[in-house]
Design goal:
- By secondary structure, the protein is of the alpha/beta class.
- The protein has one domain: Nucleotidyltransferase, domain 5.
- It contains four helices and five strands; from the N terminus they run βββαβαβαα.
- Strands 3-2-1-4-5 form a five-stranded mixed β-sheet, with helices on both faces.
- Strand 4, helix 2 and strand 5 form a beta-alpha-beta unit.
Length: 139
């Protein structure tokens, strides 16, 4: 699986092992457009042999979808066609905060955080998706 934290300027990527136990960050990529983000994501998915793409869905505090969620779903629809892979969404509320806290606890300085935050957020999105999937199955 490929996990994605999609943003207008930066896109974070994470993968998981074949057993779907451990998610780990890959990298963050600076992009200039949604089309560039789609192309980069499709390439990373192909290189990693992904069979599923999980995109973080930025919901409002009350769980509603706003403009940002609409942009993210549009990105997901295009990526699904270009990559030829199924796309699913996972609630990404507070993942950036969690990622920044984790990075700070591990000695990353505030000025260096942006280059790691999006990939760490993608890791959290993917890990949450894996956990939720297992809970639904009763594992």
């Amino acid at each position: 699986m490929l996990g994605i934290d999609y943003g207008d300027r930066y896109v974070g990527f994470a993968e998981c092992d074949d057993s779907e136990i451990l998610a780990y960050p890959l990298r963050s990529v600076k992009v200039r457009s949604m089309r560039e983000a789609v192309d980069v994501a499709a390439r990373i998915a192909a290189e990693g042999g992904a069979r599923l793409i999980v995109i973080g869905l930025p919901l409002m505090p009350d769980g509603a979808e706003g403009d940002r969620a609409g942009k993210t779903r549009a990105f997901g629809r295009v990526l699904e066609r270009v990559a030829g892979l199924p796309v699913e969404y996972s609630d990404e509320r507070l993942t950036t905060v969690q990622a920044e806290e984790y990075l700070a606890e591990n000695g990353i300085k505030k000025r260096d955080m942006k280059k790691y935050t999006d990939a760490a957020s993608a890791q959290i999105i993917l890990a949450d998706y894996i956990t939720t999937k297992k809970l639904r199955k009763g594992d």
